[in-house]
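User: Teach me something about this protein's shape.
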Amino acid sequence: MRTEPMTVQLPPAQSLTRQRLRAWSWHRQGLDGSLAGSTAEQVLARAGWARSVGGANPYLTLFARAGIRRGEVDADVLAHRVLELPTARGCT
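Assistant: First, the predicted structure itself:
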């Protein structure tokens, strides 16, 4: 838990171009290669979560960001290193 206040250095508004915002978004999501070689835990800690809805999206999320193959993801789930949390939504 952080005890010191967080400070943010904001760039000048004029420098926030579409390209710069897109680059920041890709970096924040780990799609720029910065998560290459990371574990599934590290990817999800940085990206936040991966929407599953019973599909292949979590596998694609982890592969696109860190090159993690399906077998590794399945092993991480079985070992409870990453979890799928079922939820109910109004549209389901």
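Now, about its shape. The chain is about 40% helix and 0% strand. The chain has a mean pLDDT of 84. If you'd like, I can walk through any region in more detail.
User: That's plenty for now, thanks!
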